[in-house]
Write a structure and sequence with these properties.
4 helices, alpha+beta, three-stranded antiparallel beta sheet
């Protein structure tokens, strides 16, 4: 008899991100998951020691990272929500 073995690979391992876009059926789709991956990658290029999981799981960390490097064109759009402070007075 054949035994079925469940994949020990987590779901995240199957997500393919390219430049902040998730590849779904060959098409790039902007997703928060892949945007956070890109933010972490660019942050590491600037010398910050952060992981994509820490960016995803800690909004304050993402806010701080984006505050320091969010003007980089590669992650500008990914950092817009992290840097917004809501409605500002006139």
């Amino acid at each position: 008899p054949l035994a079925l073995v469940a994949s020990a690979e987590p779901a995240e391992a199957r997500i393919k991100c390219v430049n902040g876009f998730q590849i779904v059926n060959g098409s790039p789709i902007s997703t928060p998951y892949c945007q956070d991956e890109l933010v972490a990658k660019v942050a590491r290029e600037y010398g910050l020691k952060v992981s994509a999981a820490s960016i995803r799981n800690n909004p304050n960390l993402k806010h701080n990272v984006c505050r320091h490097i969010g003007r980089d064109n590669r992650i500008y759009m990914a950092c817009i929500d992290a840097n917004s402070v809501g409605r500002r007075p006139f």
